[in-house]
Amino acid sequence: MIERYSRPAMKRVWSEENKYQLWLKVELAVCEAWSEAGVIPADDMAKLRKAAFNQKVMDEAFKRTRHDVTAFLQAVTRGLGPEGRWVHLGLTSSDVMDTALSLQMVEGIDILLQDVAALSEAVRGQAITHKKTPIMGRTHGVHAEPTTFGLKMALWWDELYRQEARLRFAREHVAVGKISGAVGTHATVPPQVEDKVCARLGIKADAVSNQIVQRDRHAHFVTALALVAASLEKFATEVRHLQRTEVHEVEEPFSEGQTGSSAMPHKRNPELSERVCGLARLIRGHSVTALENVALWHERDISHSSAERLILPDSCLALDYILDLFTGVVKGLRVYPKRMWQNLESTRGLVFSQRLMLTLVEKGLPRESAYKIAQRHGMASWDSGADFRQLVRNDPEVLQHLSEADLDGIFDYGYYLKYVDDVFQRLGLS
Asked: Most buried residue, 141, 209, 307, 406, by most Cβ within 10 Å?
């Protein structure tokens, strides 16, 4: 388990203490359902409600039994009298373990939904602040055409909205319990008991199960987490690129006294974003393991169990951590509009090549001819370092078709910002 990156709330969800308390909660909910069915006497049920779990007893019992649920039951019933015989009535271990695990996953995903909401709000703030801040758009890592930093942030915000929806969908599909006995036939515990137990626990009864809740649900859960992590890696990679010395359009927060290198005192590295990228890979790897857990032998085997004890807590702990970490990056992001403008101008007007081509087409030239004119001056600007705009203004062939007013309009950066408000309005960002 990635202890170093654990935050308190998520750490509590996946703690052994919480797990066993949830096991007890499930066991007592089953007892309540049996009592309502007239099986457990009311007096015994009143005593069962006071049942408690004793970790010391469980540890001692586990040394003998080598079975955690058997040891757990001894740890609970040791403090009870004759009424203890009703605990675990008609159940198999997975009834308790899988139902409690579902409750843990629901608790975990609820924390992650709060994390995503906090990051979304931070991104929203940057989007609105920099809605009209021009920045060079890049494709293949090469200057393409201008966009705005606010549009970059708006894109992230919209992606986080989709990720939130995926988490909620995953929550719905893991919020199920299984109280159907060995191999899921309900032979020892009727469906009515399962329905009452799950209703009491605030989840749905799995419509059909064998000895376990089916692991496609858990794979859905982990892959949803991996998708969120993939978006975070995408966002963090963008920060890393924009922080490169040659670009230097944004920087991660860098506090006084912080150091970036033991050897080079000048260094300010995007190490937080790099950490996000690294842990996103971990979560993505866990999603593969979760998918491998779907195919089990017959009504079940136990090959999934050992893996889940690692991948479910680790995925939740890691994603909780990097969501919070990257929220801090976004909130404290240093944005350099002047540097963005310098980079826009660094290619000496090359960004206007498409505008030139399209305007020539509008004036009646065939597209191929217009493309050749724009490309000719673009290549000359690349090779000689001359200003693309000046090369175009000095071309007699261009001046046969375009006036000075036409050229002024072509070389206007404002052209690329004219629909930014429309996009923000469509997103509901204000």
From this structure: 209
Active-site position among 67, 261, 346, 403: 261
15 is annotated as an active-site residue: no
Backbone angles phi, psi at 54, to 5 degrees: -115, 110
Q: Was domain 350-410 assigned CATH 1.10.40.30?
A: yes
Give dist(CA 47, CA 384) in Å, integer.
90
pLDDT digits (tens, 9 = 90+) for 413-425: 999 999 999 999 9
The yes-or-no answer on residue 262 being catalytic is no
Q: Which H or E run contains 308?
A: helix 303-331
pLDDT in tens, 74-97: 999 999 999 999 999 999 999 999
Q: Are 48 and 40 in contact (CB under 8 A)?
A: yes
Q: Give CATH 1.10.40.30 domain extents, the chain.
A: 350-410
**What does CATH list as the number for 3-255+266-341?**
1.20.200.10
pTM here? Answer: 0.93
Catalytic residue among 140, 262, 266, 430: 140
d(CA 396, CA 388): 15
